[in-house]
Amino acid sequence: MGTTMARVTAVSSNGTYSFSKPNRESITLLAGLGVEGDVHAGETVKHRFRMKHEPHLPNLRQVHLMHEELFDELATKGFTVAAGELGENVSTRGIDLLGLPTGALLRLGEEAIVEVTGLRNPCAQIDTYQKGLLKEVFELDATTGEFAFKSGIMGVVRQGGVVRPGDPIAVELPAGPHRPLERV
């Protein structure tokens, strides 16, 4: 068949704060927390800047998903980026992550379910990683004059489970009207 099945291409986690996350054979998602053993797992915010100012807020960034199609696009502009290098936990192929509405459910593998909460807000660390990369993960919409953020999406774990490279991804859309993703 000519259809591309949406799938997980890599999984990554890191127990300490660093920009990139090493690839793993599998990761375990924990309901309400995130990726087991990952520094960003928890019920309340784990983003270093936000922890200083809003430590009590719910963690809407438990899992970071990134589409590998972005890596292909960046390669045409001279950047070499591989799974986990931009800090994502789950790399995907064959699914329009950025086009999903807020509240969409992603079934990763047999058990895990992640609810999409919003767009990743890319930070200046991306330029520290590779000079000039930050401007490539933004796109100015000529029609609206608004910026589009292309560096993946964030979600919270609604049902735990093990996720491995090669696992299928199934999407369940929320009841309408759909709300487009905003930065979280």
Describe the structure.
By secondary structure, the chain is mainly beta. Helix 2 links the parallel strand 5 (about 65) and strand 6. The protein is built from 3 helices and 13 strands. It has a single domain (about 5-160), classed as M1 Pyruvate Kinase, Domain 3, CATH 2.40.33. The chain has an 8-stranded mixed β-sheet. Strands 4-3-12 form a 3-stranded antiparallel β-sheet, with no helix packed on it. The protein has helices at about 50-55, 70-75, 125-130; strands spanning about 5-10, 25, 25-30, 35, 65, 90-95, 105-110, 110-120, 140, 145-150, 155-160, 160-165, 170.
Salient structural properties:
10% helix, three-stranded antiparallel beta sheet, mainly beta, 3 helices, single chain, 184 residues, MOSC domain-containing protein, 30% strand, eight-stranded mixed beta sheet, molybdenum ion binding, M1 Pyruvate Kinase, Domain 3
In N-to-C order, the SSE pattern is EEEEHEHEEEHEEEEE
CATH homologous superfamily grouping: PK beta-barrel domain-like
Largest sheet: 8 strands, mixed
Shape: globular
CATH class: Mainly Beta
The CATH architecture comes to Beta Barrel
Strand content: 25-35%
What radius of gyration results from the CA coordinates? 16 Å
Low-confidence stretches: none
- Tally the helices: 3
Domain MOSC: 21-172
Protein name: MOSC domain-containing protein
GO molecular function, one term: molybdenum ion binding
